[in-house]
Write a structure and sequence with these properties.
This is Membrane protein 6-pyruvoyl-tetrahydropterin synthase-related domain-containing protein. By secondary structure, the chain is α+β, with helices and mostly antiparallel strands. The protein has helices at about 5-30, 45-60, 90-95, 100-125, 130-140, 145-150, 155-160, 165-175, 185-195, 200-220, 225-255, 265-270, 275-280, 300-310, 315-330, 340, 355-375, 380-405, 410-415, 430-435, 455-460, 545-580, and strands at about 35-40, 415-420, 425-430, 460-465, 465-470, 475, 480-485, 495-500, 505-510, 515-520, 525, 535-540.
Length: about 575
């Protein structure tokens, strides 16, 4: 490749990245200019997670073992069970802008930018067509299900995980098809899915298993089996080391005691009615299900399906496979499958069958990009791409406008809007604030033996010498430290605190003296003597495994970045050297 071609390619990449920045901001613009965060299904849950990280970061800590500022101040160890690393950009942005509303939308814009970049990058590595890659990235980034995840559901973990699905898919495809050097796509892709959302990781692994089987059956001859297996092995090892900052502490806790399956739901009830799914998709409805809608793939991807049927004979075999898989996952979200039997299998962990729409949306985006090249052959590429982007944005904006119109009504505002952050606590309008205590799902990671006393713990009732006592003075004593204050502690010989036992807890009194403790029959902290102090401080202390996992992940990330930059600069300086030799 000549130096002039490299310059042109670099300029084109800069223009593409610039357009992606603009599109990312457009994605959030209809909401960010309102100055409020619209009430999504899991909004309170995830805003409290962000708030906890922000408060801890002010104290110089980002590894949060127990929540001491939020989640009812019960010492909830959410970050040990729910991935948190990919929330750190929100913390960084907040420290720059000091406004939580802007922070949330800029965080969503940031992950939209990464989605565009990763989808464009991986699609190009497969098809070697800039226009097709660009259009595929735009279709996926603005697809209805992704918009629903961001705003209607506010399912932040699942939304962020979608960012890395293109890396995961291409990485697996590359290994199976023989592009062995591209195994890091799978390694870091699945790692950051795991660092975003556990259920998405399981769904993506299931998808990869099906994809692998389909590719294997569709390939006439497989050679270099050992190299393929070695590449997969390297991807798995690096994925584990990269994810260890969450994975190892998580395993340490779930092996310590028993927990019930989080939020197990009736899969039959959650499966979508096919006619309703098609209706809401065609009408491009992205509002919440409480309004009588169902989550869907949107008008753009329905149009992709129609074109796929019309042009099926002209579509290359590899894209036919993608199209068929997309249709399979589309209908897998509906009641057409025997969910009565399926929910008895481990697949019940996905909770909602319509989560398969993530896979369907991504695969249909790939097909949509390919259909664009079929339709626009021998036409002006720049003009065609521009028109295509407009055609993607029009139904997207129509859905956004309809969603805002529904929840901007005066009778809806009190229920659906987050108001503001006051004194480090979120203030919601009356209709929402009444239900917030039930929206942090404390039962999910409460020990199984302690579920019967969850309401008592949430209301901060201690059992002191056999009597129930409400503790009114509970405060954070710093990162990973929760302080309980009561004069009843001084002379008591049997204290059961309103907090559950987890691994790596340490307890001291107000004088700093270490207090031995045991586990009550309901898995709560039981102390026999406070050593004449009216203060009891419960602290999560990082174990050696925690420390090693942090070092292992940081080391993997640094090594990955260094290798990536090294290859990038080697390629750049090779071209510069060739240019110098020409002179």
């Amino acid at each position: 490749m000549t130096y002039i071609k490299i310059q042109k390619r670099t300029l084109l990449n800069i223009l593409i990245l610039s357009s992606f920045i603009i599109l990312s901001l457009i994605f959030c613009l209809p909401f960010i200019k309102t100055g409020t965060i619209y009430y999504g299904d899991d909004m309170y849950y995830h805003l409290e997670r962000i708030n906890e990280l922000i408060r801890n970061a002010k104290n110089g800590n980002v590894f949060v073992g127990i929540y001491t500022y939020t989640f009812e101040k019960v010492g909830y160890p959410l970050n040990l069970f729910y991935p948190w690393i990919t929330l750190l950009p929100f913390v960084f942005i907040y420290n720059l802008v000091k406004n939580l509303t802007i922070t949330v939308y800029l965080g969503i814009a940031f992950y939209t930018f990464l989605t565009l970049v990763f989808t464009n990058w991986t699609t190009f590595r497969y098809c070697q067509n800039k226009a097709q890659s660009f259009v595929t990235a735009c279709i996926y980034a603005f697809c209805s299900y992704r918009v629903i995840d961001a705003f209607a559901r506010f399912a932040l973990g699942e939304f962020i995980a979608m960012t890395f699905l293109p890396l995961v898919t291409y990485g697996a495809y590359a290994i199976i098809k023989g592009n062995y050097k591209d195994w890091p796509f799978l390694a870091f892709g699945i790692s950051f899915v795991l660092l975003s959302h556990l259920l998405s990781t399981l769904i993506y692994v299931l998808f990869l298993a099906i994809l692998g089987i389909v590719i294997f059956l569709g390939t006439k001859q497989f050679n270099n089996i050992k190299i393929r297996i070695l590449s997969l092995f390297k991807a798995i090892i690096v994925a584990i080391t990269s994810s260890s900052i969450f994975l190892f502490p998580f395993l340490e806790q779930i092996l310590f005691q028993k927990f019930q399956q989080p939020s197990k739901l009736d899969m039959v009830e959650q499966a979508l009615v096919p006619s309703k799914l098609l209706e809401c998709s065609i009408n491009n409805i992205i509002s919440r299900t409480v309004n009588g809608n169902v989550y869907n793939i949107g008008f753009t991807l329905v149009f992709v399906i129609i074109l796929g049927i019309m042009y099926y004979r002209k579509i290359e075999q590899s894209y036919r496979m993608v199209f068929i898989l997309a249709i399979i996952f589309f209908f897998a979200s509906t009641s057409l499958l025997p969910w009565v039997q399926i929910e008895k299998t481990p697949i019940s962990f996905i909770q909602f069958p319509w989560r398969f729409l993530v896979i369907s949306s991504f695969l249909l985006s790939i097909v949509g990009g390919y259909e664009f090249t079929l339709i626009t052959q021998n036409k002006n590429k720049i003009l065609s791409v521009f028109v295509m982007v407009l055609l993607i944005l029009i139904p997207w904006y129509s859905g956004i406008s309809d969603m805002r119109r529904n929840i901007d009504r005066p009778d809806q505002y009190k229920t659906y809007h987050y108001v503001e952050l006051r004194n480090n606590r979120f203030k919601y309008s009356y209709g929402a604030e009444k239900t917030t205590k039930y929206m942090i799902y404390l039962d999910q990671y409460t020990p199984k033996k302690g579920l019967s006393t969850l309401n008592v713990v949430r209301d901060h009732y201690a059992m002191i010498d056999g009597k129930m006592v409400k503790l009114n003075k509970i405060k954070s004593a710093g990162s990973n430290k929760l302080e309980y204050i009561s004069d009843r502690f001084r002379d008591s010989k049997n204290i059961i605190l309103p907090m559950y036992v987890y691994r790596n807890l340490q307890i001291v009194n107000g004088n700093g003296e270490k207090l031995p403790f045991t586990t009550s029959k309901n898995s709560q902290i039981k102390i026999n003597n406070s050593l004449s102090s009216n203060k009891i401080i419960v602290q999560y202390k990082l174990s050696n495994l925690d420390i090693c996992s942090i070092i292992l992940s940081l080391g993997t990330w640094v090594f990955g970045v260094v290798v990536f930059l090294k290859r990038l600069f080697q390629k750049h300086w090779k071209v510069r050297f060739q240019k110098t030799k020409q002179y």
